[in-house]
């Protein structure tokens, strides 16, 4: 069944927030048609600038990346736009890696900068796409030495 990108997670580090809110403003019409999930400060800035409604989680350092990662694992996110900062070390680096890892694992499209975000929203796949959902059934029931007969 073909689907459209509907649930979009928006996250940006402080040095990239201006880039993200400018991008969101430029793509306001596209995003108005989507459910937006955001980390705390990013969400406040996006909604202040665009007037769009967003579902805001905790700020990244307080667990917001993990909350979005959990939504991805639950199959509730279609696209991750995450303008992370490649020049600054972050206190919550493990959470950032985890978010990027879980999005990769679940085959979610990820844009880490403006150019990639532009490519994704202008792609025909944005409107109609069948994302292959990975099959992890082997992980749910794999045999573990010493525990299985
Ligand atoms: O730190 C973040 C992502 O790792 C973003 O968090 P904020 O949107 O709360 O600044």
Automatic annotation (TrEMBL):
GO MF term (any one): methylglyoxal synthase activity
UniProt KW keywords: Lyase
The keyword Signal is annotated on this UniProt entry: no
Active site: 65
Binding residues annotated for substrate, in chain numbering: 13, 17, 39-42, 59-60, 92
Catalysis performed (reactions): dihydroxyacetone phosphate = methylglyoxal + phosphate
InterPro entries tied to this protein: Methylgl_synth, Methylglyoxal_synth_AS, MGS-like_dom, MGS-like_dom_sf
Domain spans labelled MGS-like: 1-149
HAMAP family with a match to the protein in the record: Methylglyoxal_synth
Entry-linked NCBIfam families: MGSA (TIGR00160), PRK05234.1 (NF003559)
Protein name: Methylglyoxal synthase
Organism: Marinobacter halodurans
Lineage: Bacteria, Pseudomonadati, Pseudomonadota, Gammaproteobacteria, Pseudomonadales
Name of the gene: mgsA
